[in-house]
């Protein structure tokens, strides 16, 4: 349990020196509450009152349970850039070495918008370790600028042994250089926003499209059948021609989907690669990228109701987004094979299960 508390030990307290409630106590209660299904600061205070006897087994709680105003004030004042490094301390406990596919993607907090600006909610960039199934970084997109936020997020990470994937928005030289500088490799989606590169990729890859180098067998799930095929060609000369660091190869992936008896038009995607992987490996890398949508963003919205969260003021939305990801990391790391939703329900019902989740740090 002490190691769990140590996650928050170095987070600077934004309040005055005479604050009544210990910051670590407040953060541990908040995280435990989210693990049990709390959606907001009022829920956190209610959880604390209901579980006070349990919480006193490992927290001092010298002045009792904080009020919902205390939780709200702390999350509004807390510096997100000081709170966010908790991700890396968590990773040090559960995944000693980052490796495999690291996906970068943006996500809007639909309920976090200024009055009268519902169409421009707060935008975050999340970083997801696909093999570990852990959220490993988050950055606020300044003025909804995902490109700047993604670069800031990557600068926080050591990427040795990692392959970074991202959509076409991040297919630019600065992003590629940042990945290489941090020790990683990349597989970046290429679209017409890089018009000259895109044209050259089509010229090199389209003549080979009729003879794919690898083809996955037909697979069925969610009421549809899919077949993927890939072509990879060397293209180191494009790095010099387009002043784009690290290009070693190009890939073309074609997805053919059938829903019921109706066959949809094929979807073709192109990728810039910093290493000439085999076509089968490229298929695996690009498929792993979608874990950030299916296993992170979808779960945050459907299980944690993130899109409906109404926190809007100061740093509150950003800090509570960090807290939800920490809760998700904790739930995923617990050895129980139950679904995330069932783990949340059991944690709320069973004090022993909640304690085991908080005490699982090695």
Question: Brief description of this entry?
Answer:
With 362 residues, the chain is α+β, with helices and mostly antiparallel strands. The protein has 16 helices and eleven strands. Strands 1, 2, 3, 4, 5, 6, 7, 8, 9, 10 and 11 form an eleven-stranded mixed β-sheet that branches.
Walkthrough of the structure:
This protein has 362 residues and is α+β, with helices and mostly antiparallel strands. The protein has 2 domains: 2-83 and 315-358, no CATH class; 89-296, Nucleotidyltransferase, domain 5 (2-Layer Sandwich). Helices cover 41% and strands 20% of the residues. It contains 16 helices and 11 strands. It has helices at 2-6, 23-35, 41-50, 52-55, 68-77, 80-83, 86-94, 146-155, 173-181, 195-205, 237-241, 279-289, 291-302, 316-333, 340-349, 351-358; strands spanning 100-109, 122-129, 134-140, 162-166, 185-190, 214-215, 219-221, 224-234, 249-259, 262-263, 267-273. Strands 1, 2, 3, 4, 5, 6, 7, 8, 9, 10 and 11 form an 11-stranded mixed sheet that branches. Strand 2 and strand 3 (134-140) form a beta hairpin. It starts with a helix and ends with a helix.
């Amino acid at each position: 349990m002490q190691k769990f508390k140590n996650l928050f030990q170095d987070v600077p307290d934004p309040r005055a020196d005479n604050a009544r409630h210990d910051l670590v106590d407040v953060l541990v209660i908040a995280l435990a509450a989210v693990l049990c299904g709390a959606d907001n600061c009022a829920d956190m205070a209610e959880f604390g009152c209901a579980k006070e006897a349990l919480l006193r087994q490992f927290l001092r709680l010298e002045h009792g349970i904080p009020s919902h105003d205390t939780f709200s004030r702390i999350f509004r004042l807390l510096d997100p850039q000081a709170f966010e490094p908790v991700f890396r301390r968590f990773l040090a406990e559960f995944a000693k070495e980052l490796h495999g596919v690291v996906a970068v993607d943006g996500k809007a907090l639909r309920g976090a918008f200024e009055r009268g600006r519902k169409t421009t909610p707060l935008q975050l960039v999340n970083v997801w370790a696909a093999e570990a199934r852990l959220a490993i970084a988050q950055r606020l997109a300044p003025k909804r600028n995902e490109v700047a936020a993604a670069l800031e997020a990557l600068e926080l990470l050591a990427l040795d042994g990692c392959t970074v994937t991202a959509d076409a928005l991040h297919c630019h030289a600065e992003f590629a250089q940042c990945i290489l500088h941090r020790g990683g490799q990349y597989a970046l989606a290429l679209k017409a926003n890089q018009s000259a590169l895109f044209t050259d990729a089509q010229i090199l890859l389209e003549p080979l499209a009729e003879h794919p180098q690898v083809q996955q067998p037909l697979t069925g799930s969610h009421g549809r059948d899919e077949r993927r095929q890939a072509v990879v060609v060397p293209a180191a000369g494009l790095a010099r021609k387009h002043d784009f660091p690290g290009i070693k190869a190009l890939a073309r992936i074609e997805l053919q989907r059938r829903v019921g008896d109706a066959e949809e038009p094929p979807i073709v995607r192109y990728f810039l690669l910093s290493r000439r992987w085999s076509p089968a490996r490229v298929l695996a890398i690009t498929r792993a990228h979608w874990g950030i949508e299916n296993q992170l963003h979808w779960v945050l919205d459907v299980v944690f109701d993130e899109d409906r969260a109404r926190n809007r003021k100061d740093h509150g939305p950003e800090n509570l987004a960090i807290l939800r990801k920490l809760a998700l990391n904790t739930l995923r790391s617990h050895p129980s094979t139950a679904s995330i939703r069932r783990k949340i329900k059991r944690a709320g019902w069973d004090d022993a299960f909640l304690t085991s989740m908080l005490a699982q740090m090695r």
